[in-house]
Automatic annotation (TrEMBL):
This is Probable RNA 2'-phosphotransferase. GO terms for biological process: tRNA splicing, via endonucleolytic cleavage and ligation. Belongs to the KptA/TPT1 family. Removes the 2'-phosphate from RNA via an intermediate in which the phosphate is ADP-ribosylated by NAD followed by a presumed transesterification to release the RNA and generate ADP-ribose 1''-2''-cyclic phosphate (APPR>P). May function as an ADP-ribosylase. It comes from Streptomyces viridochromogenes (strain DSM 40736 / JCM 4977 / BCRC 1201 / Tue 494). GO terms for molecular function: NAD+ poly-ADP-ribosyltransferase activity; tRNA 2'-phosphotransferase activity. PANTHER family: PUTATIVE PHOSPHOTRANSFERASE, TRNA 2'-PHOSPHOTRANSFERASE 1. InterPro entries: Ptrans_KptA/Tpt1, RNA_2'-PTrans_C, RNA_2'-PTrans_KptA, RNA_2'-PTrans_N. The gene is kptA. Pfam families: PTS_2-RNA (PF01885).
């Protein structure tokens, strides 16, 4: 499977397992799972065909491990804008976590902190390198440091998804280290 096809299938899966399952007639269960055969059939009915081998390839080679397969079911690991309960238990984060962004968002972040926007949780990275890659998707990346240990001491709850992304409801400004305004 060539890289272009891998990306195309991955984006299709992300769109329909995280944001718009109803667009192709899918109903995710409360945990975000759907039967793989149902997904493949719904995609084909709506003009996008892929095989189980292609799906398995995308799941196995995705560097961010965006998808989880359990038996005959698949789900997105995190990042949903549709209501799901991933069933992730609270977890103790490392002392610091990181968030990649771009300069145009800094004023809002200074004022409001990090908010989930159209997702269920704020996504944080365990290392600067990952946060840099995340921020670079939207331009020149800026990496923010989150004092996760202080947040947890103050009662904020963290979860970690199967692919290592840390999730929390919000990150208030006092817990963020941001670059100084120019």
């Amino acid at each position: 499977m060539d890289e272009r096809r891998t990306v195309k299938v991955s984006k299709y899966l992300s769109k329909h397992l995280r944001h718009q399952p109803e667009r192709i007639g899918l109903t995710l269960d409360e945990g975000g799972w759907v039967e793989i055969d149902t997904l493949i059939g719904a995609a084909a009915t709506h003009g996008f065909r892929f095989t189980r081998d292609e799906l398995d390839h995308v799941v196995a080679t995705n560097d961010k491990r965006r998808f989880a397969v359990e038996g005959t079911r698949i789900r997105a690991s995190q990042g949903h804008s549709v209501e799901v309960d991933l069933g992730l238990p609270p977890a103790t984060p490392p002392a610091y976590l990181y968030h990649g962004t771009v300069a145009r968002h800094l004023d809002a972040i200074r004022a409001e902190g990090l908010r989930p926007m159209d997702r269920h949780a704020v996504h944080l990275s365990p290392d600067r390198e990952t946060a840099t890659r995340v921020g670079a998707r939207r331009g020149r990346p800026i990496v923010l440091t989150v004092d996760a240990a202080a947040m947890q001491r103050d009662g904020h709850v963290f979860h970690v998804s199967a692919n290592g992304v840390w999730l929390t409801q919000a990150v208030p400004p006092p817990y963020l280290r941001l670059p100084e305004p120019r």
